[in-house]
Amino acid sequence: MRDNIMGTVVRPAGPAHAPDTERGSVARITTNDGTTTYVASEAEAARIAQTMYRTDHDAVATVVPFRERLEDSDVARFRDQGYLAIDGLLSGADVEASLAGLHDLALRREELGERIWVQEEPFFQERGSDVPAGDPELRIRKLARFVKADERLAAAADHPNVHAVLDQLIGPGHRLIQDMALMKPPFKGSEKPWHQDNAYFDWTPLDGILGVWIALDEATVENGCMQIIPGSHLDGPAKHFHLRDCQLDDRGVAVDRIEVVPLKPGGALFFSALVHHGTPANLSASRRRALQFHYAAARCRRMTFREHMAYFSDGAYYAGCRDWDMEAGVSRAMLEA
Ligand SMILES: O=C(O)CCC(=O)C(=O)O
Asked: What is the distance in A from the centroid of ligand 1 to the CA of 23?
């Protein structure tokens, strides 16, 4: 246990939580299904936004226009910086269709049950509701596994422009491995602390996994657009800890290297699943809804707990963010698929 920069206690993913794999323990390890229960006060959220993120407009990332054939400099940026931000990937009509799809799913969530996955903002889960009735979207933090439930959202994940860019960045034959919407509602949209997406996935090799984050509302510095550390993918997998969420140690975040990625609706961030990224809380009055899809290159396959442990280990202990079945040695999601 040690102090982090906010003066609160940081518990490494150590003995209290992680299994001793060498002794073949079958205990459920500290796992993560993508949810967090951490509720920051407004003052804490504002302090985190100021100390762990860039709030100035000087750190804006390069955004290029969509082009079916990427330029060499686009591919080089993705290779060297770990990201490529593209304006106009989806049209206004595509964005409207996705928003309508999300709205319908939010209205039908009871009826759909486990056909989709929904996480409410921890504030509402823990502290009840002050959301006007009739707008269920405003309670939601994340909505996932929806491509089988809504064809408009399936069309976004399968959009020809998305495939055109993916083909050039990770090669043809890629597969969709995650579909999610990040709803970041006004005032209560919580932080997604700094992390690497590979810590949450069980696919290898790690450099074959790519995220596509698509803005549906205008994403701004104020409402919590994506922030990234360019080049951080080249440092490989890093330890994750169960703090405000499953995340990197705040003290290791290279705040001075941060680039912020404001995007217009339909704009997208393609990013390596090894790039360090996060978003501060949305303390503004505007929504910031986004879609996030992850794709695995044709050469990728699922991996076991032991393989994940080899990537995400804190010495002897597991330091990743995945939900594992220790008896089977593979992720629960894989068993449930
Ligand atoms: O959209 C956000 O707020 C962050 C999304 C993200 O990085 C994630 O869910 O992995």
From this structure: 35
